[in-house]
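Curious: explain these tokens?
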Amino acid sequence: MNRELSWENQSFQGEFILLGVADRPRLEKLLFALVLFCYLMVLLGNTTIIVVSRLDPGLHTPMYFFLSNLSLVDICFTTSIGPRMLVTFWRKSKTITYGGCVAELFLALALGATECTLLTVMAYDRYAAVCHPLHYTIIMSHVLCFAMAAVCWISGFGLSLVHTVMIVKLPLCGRNQIDHFFCELPAFVKVACGDTTFDEKMIYSSAVVYLLIPASLIMVSYGYIAAAVMRIRSAEGRKKAFNTCSSHLMVVWLFFGSAIFSYLLPRSTSSPDEVKLSSLFYTFVNTMLNPLIYTLRNKEVHKALRRLLKKT
């Protein structure tokens, strides 16, 4: 009995085993191909947006400034998880060090939270552009744009720092199997021993603040945008406004929908595999689709690409 208590009080500092789908080798190989394809497309698509937005003077607007920030977040987000995950898919040993797991958790949470706030800021930008076109340049000044982007980054990393400090203090008692593809916060808390009620409540509260509230604000913004678009007399103007805003709304639904499924829905209503696949969706599939959704339906980006290609 004393030995058990002594072991329970020891803080685990070794390696974790990421279970993923290691018991299904065929599915693991399929997921390897999917993650590799998505990761390469994320790098290509988002790098293209950053370069084009930077080099073409016609895209030096608040919308493309925030879109470039979103692209940078997506590149960093997938890179913080993807390369290690791809290597692990092919290794027999699915281990990750304690320090590596904590670092992965910190970066993934920080960049995911930053993306939540950036998407909200982008919705406000579209609201200002559509509902207040005459005052748009005054409302969305360079100073305000930089300040809003800075708040997104700082708040995301601040939230992650708080949670990372909390989970580092949790006793792990030698448990080292994480039922996930990567070190995600809810999965990490599950391996802790003792009472984790406070930590779980903090995770839930943070998810409400960074997922439900931003999603609600975005919906309100688009309610005003829809009303403003209907008042546009020109059919061409309505179409242009609808195409621009529908792209952002599509990104929002894909990202927030899968993230809410992973963080807010009761675990009793979903299987572990569903949660893991949902996490893969918002970390890889959604970040791959972001540049495609924005560029395929955006004539300004098409024209900018053609101009840059002609120069080269």
Summary: The longest strand covers residues 15-18.
